[in-house]
# Entry
Amino acid sequence: MNFKPVTILAILLVGLFSGCQNQKEEKVFDWNNATVYFLLTDRFHNGNPDNDVNFGRGDDAKELRQFMGGDIQGITQKVKEGYFNDLGVDALWFSPVHEQIHGSVNEGQGETYAFHGYWIRDWTSMEPNFGTREDLAELVSVAHENNIRIMLDIIINHTGPVTEKDPVWPSDWVRTEPQCTYQDYESTVFCTLVENLPDIRTESEEDVELPKALRDKWEKEGRLQQELDELDAFFERTGYPRAPKYYIIKWITDFIREFGIDGFRVDTVKHVEADVWTILAKEAKIAFNEWKENNQEAIQEDQEFFMLAETYNYNINNGRMFSFGEKEVDYFAHGFDSQINFGFKYDANSHYEKLFSTYDSLLHAGLKDYTVMNYVSSHDDSHPFDKERKRTFESATKLMLTPGQVQIYYGDEIARPLQIEGALGDVNLRSKMDWEDNSHEELRTHWQKLGKFRQRHLAVGAGKHQKISDAPYTFARTYNKKDFEDKVVIALDVSGKEATIKVAPYFEDGAVLNEAYSNQEVKVKDGHVLIKGHQGIILLEKR
# Structure
């Protein structure tokens, strides 16, 4: 069934008792309620056409498998325009920024360049197609000025594929076989994800020399001695052996120290030993605290560094543990604050109450103090919730109101197609953002109003859920943490021009409420409100 706004009536009622006069001015934030916008840099917006071609990369790849011009400057432009603030976005997550392999590979579906950012050649360099260090610094600064945090997408599991332009790393750094079969823990961790994707020997504690190709590159760029001196200082401070994982952890956490990155989205988590993530989390927090000490004027709030895990096929219904069959691992105990929830696309087919109450129970019991990130589409999930984009309003309503974090994948808000004629494989999910498409403004407005309201009220994603009534379906969310209290009442699928909604005991008689969807005023009487909906959805908050 396609739930459009005319069939959805949502009433969200909020009372704030934090001692503040205006919550909007306070901009209270909790990662457990975060709305994160995820984009592929190359596919989002081209802010600087001068960096579109580098290293002789051509346009000889198959449909959607070449670089197409999107860059960090393009993201910054959209931050400045208020695009993300209009959606209620709390954090930006974009594809890895490190220098990618220079050549292309044939994955069986045509020649492919590293436009997606996951084929790293040098962890210390920026990919010039995406931009410069100055571009990244500006993006972080402008985002922070707009109360938006930055999550860097990072990889430790593998290098980029081997091509004529990109030699394999030394054998004490990587393995090139066997290929993973995913039958158990060993065949998931000590192997290459796919053919020709060298796997970093993250289990090693043995000293290794820097790859000659990397030293030669740095020398040519005039920074070899600087890099060597920084490595000496890192290993002297930490006492770690000069094993591959520690080099990469040093290189990755340097981005926190230099730019003030607020969090990591960590790729291919289950393919690396869990202890590696514990070390990464420790070093990331040290780097983040150093940056805050040196940039106190830029601090938005008292938050710790945030770590999100992409543990492929992790499902919230499994609680804290991820099963390999013969072995289970608790990645929350190894530095992660949240994991991407691959189960939402299935659970979202349930009725609202089953979906909401189940997630509430799981988050506030076994996952207490942690959370999950829900999504309806992504860059590598070939079976999203609404692949044909026929349930777009339902997607927005269920995602934005389900307990937990939210990931908006670029174009969800305008129904960007997920099936492209002539495209094969995952690139169907990775088409360009069409900034000229104005045919879905009603849908984008729906996302914006839900997103802004969710951003203002921590109870929506991080609060405790309680059903109030079945007809109309009404529930409450309450949040109380660090002397900040937020109360929300929501009603869905309310029919008729006017509806009587029970709000007691969450709202007191006589309270004057603002209906944020259409900017109308309503008053609570006898524990209820009588309200006329506009486009089927009503958002109420205390004036």
